[in-house]
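Recap for those who missed Tuesday's class. We walked through two folding examples back to back. For each one, the amino acid string is listed first and its predicted structure tokens come directly after. Nothing is annotated here on purpose, so try labeling regions yourself before you check the end of the notes.
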Amino acid sequence: MRDLVEGFRGLGRHVDHEIGPLPNGTIADAAFGIVREALTNVARHAPGAHTRVRCQYGDTRTDIVVTSSAPPTGATAHGANLGGGRGAAFLRSRARETGGTLTSGPTADGGWEVAAVLPGRTAAPVKRSVPRGYRLAQLTAAAGLILQPLLPVMIIRSEDVPSGSTVSAGAFFALLAAAQAVALLWLRRAPRAATGALIASAPLWPVAMAVGDYTGPVVLPPALSMLAT
């Protein structure tokens, strides 16, 4: 971790540290990941800010604190648009892996602080288990993404479509729903492109209703569109 700090110093960053010894294992891995991500965020969003890293491993708790001051007036954050926007979630997940907690937010002087409290020497080992609610959310999302493109065809019966139409409205709706599902699969990896695709597909639902001569309930297509989201 001291080498990590020295690396940021080599990039021209003002970083002080108070880092005590850490044991090998999950605590050290989580502490290193938290400090690395916090320093990276400072470099991206607050160039020139003075930063202090404090890491103390105790009997009952381990404190990891990364505090940065407000960036100098006129400093330009050239790397503010880099990254996937998931830094805060990553920090919290690293702390949660050890059974600890993490908070982050602005300081009184306009800077930023990341503070994690991890287990100490006497803490019992943490069982790495995924919460039941998270598993349920994963299964629900997976089922929704699989069934979403099929629902329009299953719900909109053939007798709801006039005989003169060569392609049913349900088929059009299924294609749009599938496009939404694919866009949502890329939401975390490319949030801007995925959001743009979702917005662009929204006006196509009335077009599909007209082209497919849809005469069913007006609220059904928007409901199918919202289901994926």
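Example two. Treat it independently of the first, because the proteins are unrelated.
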Amino acid sequence: MLYEKLRDYATSGVYPFHMPGHKRADGSGLPFEIDITEIGGFDNLHDPHGCLLSLQERAAALFGAREAFALVNGATVGILAAVRAMTGDADSVLIARNSHMATYHAAELCRLRTDYLLPDQIGESGVFASVSPEAVEQRLQANPAISLVIITSPTYEGVVSDIRRIAAVCHMHGARLFVDEAHGAHFPFSDSFPPSAVQGGADAAVISLHKTLPSMTQTALLLTNDERLAQSFKRQLSVFETSSPSYVLMASIDRCLDFLQHSQRAFDRYTERLDAFYEAAASLRHLSVPRDKLWSDGNVFDRDKGKLCIFCNGYMTGSELMAALRSDYRLELEMALGDYALAMTSVCDTDEGFDRLLRALRELDSRCHGITQPASVAPLPLPHRRCPISEAIAADGKMTDIRQAEGKVSREYIRVYPPGIPMIVPGEVIDRQLLQLLGDLEAKGHEILTDSASFPFISIIG
């Protein structure tokens, strides 16, 4: 059933402006015949000495790191292992609030004391700006116990932070810096993209090969220039990553590395396509795909132009735009939130794909008549925290309708997916602003997720 459904979709003509980055164009016909286990001559991912060691050494060289660890459970396992390796029980960590759920799960499992940094919003766009070095320094000065800082760069929308300055601030205060760089695996391969996190001085970073490069879903790398950290990573990956790693996925990493060794022309063509698309999209009158104007805001350090943020400017919602592109033009985007939708591109996109998207946006733009929607969803301030995540989860609780839970303490995460960033985490107080935002998002058709039941039911302490 699933196989047939996937096969039919692959031949349906729908163009993928979403992950994975290979855009279904590889054609290598991988699967069953190369799906093996750790038989003689094929090495062991958790103790590599042969072909898998060679694979990881090649990855490290290509990505400018001293050590690279191949991951077959996605960036998620890299985040879990790295946070565990870089902290001790009950350590204090500073987390940028727009971090992925895996970061919070790592804090939960390691019983960490969490401090949060809420990035600014870019104008009224509803998009988070860069994490500023000054804000990191303020938090480190206020809480000298912080031993690890965790930020996401680039974000889902491609916003990049000043890793070099943030790393310097962290090290000056005796803290390490870990960067969730899942969406930036392509950065080292063209000067048209920002520098990578490890090149900027981060102690470690995780990248998802499958998001923006020709590699299969779940393939990623954990990178570091610190040999001592590398030994700790190896130990923690043996805890968190499967003991039966897929050779199909590892072969996909190998093929991806082959591609990257000879990718200069492909990346040149990719950036030319992006530049041509932005130039053509500048003629849109109602919708907009900003290349410079929005992102030149003072609180954006840099940006990945491969993330096409399509803003509706009140003429429709991002979800309505995404639905129209799917139903009328057979274009599937990555996500929609508030006033914008996101088309994720990669080095494997084609002229035809960009042309189809541009024609569709021009037609939809011509149909826009009158602003009908609020321009953005205002981000929430940080909720009041009553207790650490692990303590809240361990507390006695009860299920309730969240609309009756104002003033109560949550025992679980509430998030919109995608992008999977929690609006509240266990141990925080449910307030009126959160309830109003959740109501607005639900009314606009966004999928709201909790941990233990179907929204609007949630577990609270009590």
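Answers for example two:
The CA atoms of residues 43 and 130 lie 41 Å apart.
The radius of gyration is 22 Å.
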